[in-house]
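Protocol step 4 of 6: record predicted structures for both targets in the notebook before any analysis. Target 1:
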Amino acid sequence: MLFRSCRAAAAVVVMAGFAVLPALAQPRGPDIIPEVVNRVIDSVVVISTSEALPGVDRVPPPDLGPDSDLDQFFKKFFDQERRGEHGERPTGEGSGFVVDAKGIIVTNAHVIEDADKIEVTFNDGSKLPATVIGRDKPTDIAVLKVTPKAPLKPVRFGDSDKLQLGQWVIAMGNPFGIGLSASAGIVSGRNRNIRNGPYDDFIQTDAAINKGNSGGPLFDLDGAVIGMDTAILSPTGSSVGIGFALPSAEITPVVAEIEKYGAMRRGYIGVRVEDVPEEIATRFAIADGKGALVSNVIDGGPAAKAGVKIGDVVTRFDGKPVADARALQRLVGSAGIDRTVKIALLRDRKPIEIEVRLAEATPSAKQPPATAPAPQASVPPAAFASLGVELAGLDAAVRHRFDIVPSVEAGVVVLAVQPTSPLKALGIEAGDTIIQVERQRVTTPAAFERRLAALKSAGASEALTLVASRAGSMRFVRIPVG
């Protein structure tokens, strides 16, 4: 009853010379949950799926005659095996919610996976068949369509970007197939990466989420959907207080694209990015190391045409702050296509802004080429005594020798590192590829040598160098120039 007593009428009372100041307004708590649940429950649905069993209806039960004691037994047995007149077998149940009065429903893509038939059950017990408008596996979102006799009650989306830790939320759905249920808890965490896909940005909550809740809405206390229940972390398969929901900021653009085009068309700018390493954050005076470091720019891509360069740090995209590499990936992916957006960068400590025309992320654009282009000529190895390394240009033979991934497209490969080499202390090893030295690409040992010599002549003692591992991960290190 603490929440009620804290909302007593404000007053100033003076006793024995002490002033009791007016009580501060308290945020709404659990006592408002029944009101919210009653207001939104007609927007929440149960989703049942089944798959067809080809040919099962062609096997009739044995004809034992109407007077046989076993006749009813066999009829019941075969009815259960056939699962109805159309030879269907239930495959699962999940949850969903109405987003349009005309019959648009959102759920998780995994809820309807491999389903031949989808049925939606509403709070009043009515049922409607559903068809799939489209699904997006990377975000695990599916959009369904039913044809209601009367307008449905849609949910209202809230702003998941404004969620705060400790904020009360309500999870609704169909746990274990027992029917529409509600559970309450708080926002336990934000921006969780559970390695469910490339766009992970989950809300963590301790509101009970169980099997069957998938696809159900996560409401705030204003009755707005701020997430979709999607996954749990549990050693038992049941809720242990760690559940995850897709944020509404991720759901709404995907649903809009699927409704309009039947699929999610993702934006593409043609860069590879990494989280900002401490070295770069210190050099550029980036607060909290936020941003996304451009480690490669795809030739001919939108970013290359706009003038983005390796070593740039993206701080804002389309007006939104970029916290890290994953955040930029999500922002680009949900930004649509065939539109021009502004990107804020840091380059050599200077903030700049450029405009990039978004293309569509086709499968060929998302993935590096299966094989690297053949080099025009093999570059002989060269030894650098001062650095204690042996280097060679990246050609087909060197790529094969070290099993260097295709995403490392060009550079100078470290063939050997002496035990006393200063590069060894930096973690550089055979098979690593030097891609850039102080913002300039190097593709041959001779170009690498010239670049170090120029920096030494300019008075530099170290050079910020971009290095790729044979597996393709990028990092910046400072190497001595002589």
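Target 2:
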Amino acid sequence: NVRLIEDRISKHTIRAPFDGFIAAEFTEMGAWINSGDPIVQLIELNQVEIRAPVPADYATRLRRGDTVLVEFPELPDRLLTGTINRIVPFADSRARTFPVLIRMQNEIRDGVPLLMAGMMARVDLPAGQQKTMPLVPKDALVLNDKQRAVFVVDRDPPAEAGGQAGGGVAREVPVELGVAAGGMIQVDGQLTAGEQVVVVGNERLVPGTRVSVVEVIESESPTSNESDIPTN
């Protein structure tokens, strides 16, 4: 009898197939359910997928694996990128657009996801005309609401430089963002290829701050600091 009861308990216990969040409940404690009846709606948000409707002339220029910049109105101070996971080759009959599915890694802190199901996103796709623009590491960007900027280090003359790596003055340069390319991103502003930008501690800088350069990190593009790729 004990084994029979244990077997019944096992057959009447439903376990979640993955970690996630309960978005809706379709039953309550003590209610009878039949086989196949819905119990809860469970969503997994460790990764999120964004569906972007794209016109045909742009969709044909995209490739799976392309890195794209994704912006959320609710998160103006976050720079997020995703990867094109799938380009659906079947157009929406009304809008004549093709769904492009972009996958992003989510952040979950204290049980609360940064990106939530149903949020609206703006995606910058590398599908425009080719244009040469400077590339900077994503860590160099300072985001303040809708303003974007980088800090360039105007280095001291060699005779005045202190220490092996030297120092200089931080100069703020407002920029507009282009498309992402790996860990780099296109920027449009008063920047010159080869200038050094701050990637660590830049959130605490103000224009005109004297800085000591303790380490110089080479960019991901060793042959050039500019990128000739399609703009958004």
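Step 5 preliminary note on target 2. The two ends are 69 Å apart (CA to CA). The longest helix spans residues 2-11.
Proceed to step 6 after PI sign-off.
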